[in-house]
Structure formats: structure tokens, C-alpha cells
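INFO  loader      accepted 1 record
INFO  loader      residues=123
INFO  predictor   begin
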Amino acid sequence: MTAMAKMAILTGLAATIGVPQAQADTLKTMNDVGTALTNCWTPPADTDGSSVTLSFSFKRDGSLIGPPRATAVNVKGDKAAAKAFSDAAIAGVTKCLPLDFAPALAEGIAGSVYTMKFTSPKP
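INFO  predictor   done
INFO  writer      dumping C-alpha cells
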């Protein structure tokens, strides 16, 4: 799977917010990774329709190579609101770590740059 296809999968998955819960199963696909990360995130209150895109890279052990970086932020309000929204998405990602990758996924995921868009649901 190409890096562009992986980014598209993660971006598409982040459009739906799951209920936060502990990761229970080994992650076998990029779809599983996106779902796990989305389930760990809780958007700040009163941010309906806001979004942030994060860029990050994994190690084979399910941890990150470095901290996630916000690459695009679309939040109503001031810079503090945008920072709070970005920080919440970053906290959601780091709360899930380390992810438990299946061996085949760990082999292919390590070192690639991924982007994931976190979007707060509209009312």
C-alpha cells in the first residue's frame, strides 16, 4: 500500500468519532489504526465542525518516532481555541500509545509519515 493510500485511509477514518475505549486487539490494518486513534480522542466542548490534521510516524513497537505535529487547523475562535483543539487531538493520539501492531503491519508501518484529520461532529 502506498503512503498516499495510507494517508487517505487515516484521513477518512478520522471523520467519525468513536467512543473512547481501551484498545483490546492487535491492529492488523491501517483501518484498525485509524479506528484505535479516533477512539482515544475526545474533542473539546463547543468545537462543532472544527478540525485539525496531524502528521506523525510510528516505530515498529507502536510508539511514535517523534511528537505529532499539527499541519492544518480549522477552529472557530482565537489562537487559544485552536491550540486547545490541536492539543486535544495530540493527547488522544499519545493516550493510545503504544499501539499493538500485528507483525505484518509493524513491518510496513515503521518510518512512514502519516496524516490524520480529527473532525469534531457537527450538531
